[in-house]
Amino acid sequence: MTIDDASTVHAGRPLTPDFIDHAWRPLASATRRDDGFIDVTWPDGATFPAYSLWLAENAEGYGLESRTRESTLEPRDLPAPDSITAASVDADGALVLDWADGRRSRVHPGWLRHVAEGRHLPAAVLPEPVMWTGSDFSEPPTLDGSNILDDDAVLEEWLATLVRYGLCRLTNTPTDPDFVGRLVGHVGPIRDTNFGLVWSVQAKPDPDSTAYTGLDLGQHTDLPTREVPPGFQFLHCIENTVQGGWSRMSDGWAVAEAIREEHPDAYEALTTLDWVFCNRAKDAEHRWVGPMIDHGSRHQPLTLRAFYPVRSAPHMAPADMPRAYEAMRVFATMARDPRFQLVYPFRPGDLVGFDNRRILHGRDAFESAGSRHLRGTYADHDDLYSRLRVLRRGMHS
Ligand code: OGA
Ligand code: ZN
What we know:
Blueprint: H1 6-9, E1 29-32, E2 37-41, E3 47-51, H2 52-58, E4 84-89, E5 95-99, E6 104-107, H3 109-116, E7 142-144, H4 152-165, E8 167-171, H5 179-187, E9 198-201, E10 217-220, E11 232-240, E12 247-251, H6 252-262, H7 264-272, E13 274-278, E14 287-290, E15 293-294, E16 303-304, E17 311-315, H8 321-335, E18 341-344, E19 351-355, E20 359-363, E21 372-379, H9 381-392
Parallel strand pairs: 7-8
Antiparallel strand pairs: 1-2, 2-3, 4-5, 5-6, 8-19, 9-21, 10-20, 11-19, 11-21, 12-18, 12-20, 13-14, 13-17, 15-16
Bound molecules: N-oxalylglycine and zinc ion.
C-alpha cells in the first residue's frame, strides 16, 4: 500500500457525527443509484438508502469537522446530488465514497446502521413510558438512594424509572437541605424559576402560595403558568413531625386516557378549551394560555395544565364555560380516585422525583403542630434525558 492510496491514509475507524462509540457493523454492499442515493446493505439483510447530500454533510473528509463532530457545510455549498461518482465497500466493511472533485471518504458502517435503525431518534435510547394506575403499585417505584451520587448504576436506574413511570422515589438520602440541589445538579442543569434554584415547601405564617399552608393540595402539576412547564420536579423530605401531609400521586396520562374512554365529552372539552393561567406573586407575573390536557403539536409531549390556585380565567366562548367546568370536575375527581392514586407518607430522607407534565401530585392537609419541611427543585426533560443517554452510551451504540 502507498501513501497516495486514499483508503489507506484514512484506514482507521472513520469519525462519526457524534461522540458515540458505535459498534463496527461491516457492510455487505454499496450501490450507487442514479437519483443521488447510495443503497447500503448488511449481511443480515438490513438495507438503508443513504442520500448523497446527507453523506456529504456527515462524512469525514467532507462536511464533518473532526473536533466538533458537526457539519460545516452551509447548504448553499452542498455539492450536486449526483457528485458521488462511485460507492464501494472497503476491506473492513466501511462505506467508501468517491466524489466528483477527487475526494474520497470512508463512512463508519455502524453509524449508518444506528441511523438505519432509528437509534438516533430522541426516544430511542430512553425507556418506553409505561402507564400505571393504583392497581399497579401501592407506593411509588423506590430505590435505595444512599449511594446515588457515587454509583452511576443507581443513577441510571433512577433516571430510567423516572422516564418509564414518570415517578421514582429514593429512600435513605441524607436529610441535608442542600442534597436535592446537589443531586439534581449532578444530573444536569437545574431549571431555575421565580422560586429560586432550590426552594422550601413549609407552612408559613404569611403564605404567598397555597403550597406554603397546611391545606390539602388537590392533584396538580406545577407552573402551568409557563409556556414550557418544568419537565421534572423533585421533592426531598428534610423533616416531618406533623400529623397528615401524606403525598398523593396519580399518572395523569392514565387519567387522561380513562377520561377519553369513559367521558368523551369531557375529554373533548379538556383538550380543546383554553384557560388562562397566571401566578399571583408580588414580584413576578407569569402567564400562559392552553387547555388542561395539552397534546401540543407534533413531537411535543403531553402537558397537563392542572393547578387551580393559578388558573385565572376561562378563555373560551361563554356558551362553552359550563361544560368546561363540568369537564374539570370529572378530571379532578378521576385524579383523586383510588383507582389511579397512590397515597403514602413522606419520611425524612425520602426524595421523590416525578414528571411534572405527566404526573399529578398532591398532598393531604396537615396540622400546624410539628414541622414539615420539603426541599424542591426542577429540571427540564431535555437535561435529564441527555444525562441518561450519556450514561447509556456504549450499552446501546
Ligand atoms: C407544591 C406541592 C407537595 C407537598 O408545593 O406545589 O405540591 O407535599 N407540595 O407539600
Ligand atoms: Zn406542586
